[in-house]
Amino acid sequence: MTQTPAPVLFVDDEAPLRHAAGQALMLANLDTILCDSASAALAHVTPDFAGVLVTDIRMPGMDGLALMTEVLTIDAELPVILVTGHGDVDLAVASMKGGAYDFLEKPYAPARLVEAVGRALEKRRLTLENRRLRAGGIAAQDPVTDRLLGRSEAIVRLRAQVRAVADTDADVLIEGETGTGKEVTARALHAASARADRPFIAVNCAALPAEMIESELFGHEAGAFAGATRARYGRFEHARGGTLFLDEIDSLPLALQGKLLHVVEHRSVTRLGSNDPILLDLRIVAASKRDLSAAARDGGFRPDLLYRLNVVTLRLPPLSERREDIPELFLSLLALAAARAGRPVPNVPGAVLSALAARDWPGNVRELRNAAERLALGLDSALWTGDAEPGGTLADKMSAHEKALLAASLAAHGGNLKATYEALGLSRKALYEKMQRHALSRENFRED
Asked: What pTM value is reported for the model?
């Protein structure tokens, strides 16, 4: 379903300026509502208004500051961008303390208007999404989208691959760095399949004691070994009709890999102490943080087992390749963490979300989840508050705000400097100087 574009309310009593701004916004594919007065704009504002407000300060009757006050009374988190003449810059800066999101000084470049509005719309989208998460009101979409969140090209492609293979019985190999969500992906695959109402059995092969791996996987009969006082199902049998997820499969000893190959090929298992094979109807999903093709070449993994398992291979992107997904992921993880702790979901300012998208997460989604857990529990609150509301002088605050905006734009454009300085309305030299001043490196934002 295509979402209705969020509207931009643009208010200016001067028709030429109003229509010029409207044209710039519409050329940028932004849905725009042009108003010649504050009262006309107010008629469009409701608590669930999905757009943003851009208003001139100097207008007859209700001026822009009064309009901002009325709008923030309706919704204190609705982004308001003030348009000001040169003589009103100090007033506009002071108004930011009173709730304004940003201000533009006349004359401004159309690209500057579009960039400011784009950031404000993204903040509004995240604010409304955060509210829905806190209210627990997100409608279920589908088992894949619900589990694999994000809008990046990499995650959209992964969801398409999961959906394509879900209704087949093909075995799947999932590869990805630590913390990228291999088990979550396996569960999404299971939930979207015809086996969804059957068992999903997860086994961490690296966590099984060496002397018990075979018994755990294949089961045993009574008397099969010392201490086996009664027959026991193995994990394969527990997963009959459903999905067996073998995480860190590369940690299995080579001898056991040979027995696993037999199960994969013949879809039957023989318990320890028995000669009778038990037929299996299940899908096997294996996962590894290592490159199994390289491991097979090096002799650490059986090539024939690899060929049986990688009928379909899903490669999970690290967060460094999907930075634009970090704000949405963090808000979702924060809502879940708060629900588990029985606490309200903390509000996360836009500056914090921008900073999260800009930093490195070597532990990927798992590390991001830990950060959300700490915030939900009220830990590291000084750190988060400090990131969102830098102390010191106005110059310090403006500098921190500028750094957050630069980092967010670099993340959104994958470190592409040309796209970044064009989106920000800067010259190449100005962007380089600002990046150097704020110690920002394009290498931390590159997608390749």
From this structure: 0.59
Q: Would you give the distance in Å from CA 88 to the centre of its chain? A: 39
For residues 243 and 299, state if they share a domain: yes
Q: E strands along 60-110, which residues?
A: 80-84, 102-105
Tens of pLDDT along 30-78? Answer: 889 999 999 889 888 887 888 999 999 889 888 888 899 888 888 888 8
Write down which residue in 317, 335, 350 finishes a domain.
Answer: 317
Q: Which of 317, 351, 381 is the last residue of a domain?
A: 317
288, 236: one domain: yes
User: CA geometry: angle at 197 spanning 194 and 201, to 5°?
Assistant: 100
| 302 and 209 within one domain | yes
Looking at the chain, how many residues does it have?
A: 448
Write out 369-380 in H/E/C secondary structure.
Answer: HHHHHHHHCCCC
Q: How far apart are CA 31 and CA 158, in angstroms?
A: 30
* N-to-C CA span, the chain: 31
261 within domain boundaries: yes
Question: What's 72's domain CATH number?
Answer: 3.40.50.2300
The candidate with the shortest Cα–Cα distance to 376, out of 368, 364, 365, 387, is 368
Domain span at residue 76 reads 8-135
Coil, helix or strand at residue 250: helix
**pLDDT, tens digit (0-9, with 9 covering 90-100), for 137-165:** 444 457 898 889 888 889 999 999 999 99
Q: Residue 416 — pLDDT band, cuts 50, 70, 90?
A: confident
